[in-house]
Amino acid sequence: MKLIRVVTTAFFAVLSTAGFIAVLSITVGLLTVLSAAGAADLPRKEPPPPVAAPMGKYPVGKYPVGKYPVGKYPQPVVTKG
User: What's this model's pTM, rounded to 2 decimal places?
Assistant: First the structure.
């Protein structure tokens, strides 16, 4: 009789431990899925629209960099007037 009591007590101890671990793992899994789904539904701030660059205002190629030899300045332009 003592052996049956020890065996049944050990069985229920293992069963309750395994059941607790199963319930705990299911709970953690559900919380993980629900938190990910909740985070996906959160509103996000929309980025501002891109600002258009000013057309024709940027002086690309208007500076005399690399157009004349180093140390020799361009001759002044003489206009008829």
Answer: 0.39
Residue 17 φ then ψ, to 5°: -65, -45
Cβ–Cβ under 8 Å, residues 68 and 74: yes
Question: Residues 17, 21, 27, 32: what is their CA dihedral angle, to the nearest 10 degrees?
Answer: 160
Q: Per residue in 24-76, pLDDT tens?
A: 888 899 889 888 888 877 788 888 888 876 666 666 666 666 666 666 666 66
Sequence-ordered list of residues with C-beta below 8 angstroms from that of 74, at least 6 positions apart, any chain: 64, 67, 68
What is the C-alpha radius of gyration for the chain, rounded to an integer number of angstroms? 40
Contacts of 52-55 with C-beta under 8 Å, sequence gap 24+, read: none
